[in-house]
Write a structure and sequence with these properties.
mainly alpha
Length: about 150
């Protein structure tokens, strides 16, 4: 079958973004697994360490996840004692999650994970300046605005 070059996998922007995101996220596993966290639980906690309390709707928006994906993550974090879930006082239809004291303590256990992941990537020969990482991150956030 003859394909137009623009239809080949190597011409797609989506594929290297997808593959790179999966590989980068997988580099977190050796540091998160001993703490009983998945990557999705970790990024959920990142939001909570920043916000302390957030509606599930806003959490989904910030993480670009749907409620069906975030629900088991929230359940696990509740079972582990890191967050609690409750109804908003101002609107009972709104569900809110809040950080617990155990969730705050977890921060001390994971605060070095980004440095550890970067160090592991450097050991594998991947070296990129902080400036280039910043440019890449900003570009990716720009793309997310339109997706």
């Amino acid at each position: 079958m003859i394909l137009d070059d623009s239809f080949k996998l190597k011409s797609q922007v989506c594929f290297p973004l997808y593959a790179c995101a999966r590989r980068v996220a997988n580099n977190y596993a050796p540091y998160l697994e001993p703490l009983g966290l998945t990557y999705t639980q970790y990024i959920t906690m990142l939001i909570l360490w920043e916000e302390e309390e957030i509606t599930i709707k806003d959490l989904c928006l910030k993480l670009y996840l749907d409620s069906g994906t975030i629900t088991p993550v929230i359940k696990k974090l509740i079972n582990d004692g890191y967050i609690i879930k409750h109804r908003s006082v101002s609107d009972e239809r709104v569900v809110v999650v809040s950080l617990t004291d155990e969730g705050r303590k977890l921060y001390d256990k994971v605060k070095d994970v980004p440095k550890q992941v970067c160090g592991a990537l450097n050991e594998k020969g991947y070296k990129i300046s902080n400036e280039k990482l910043s440019v890449l991150r900003d570009l990716l956030y720009e793309i997310l605005k339109f997706c």
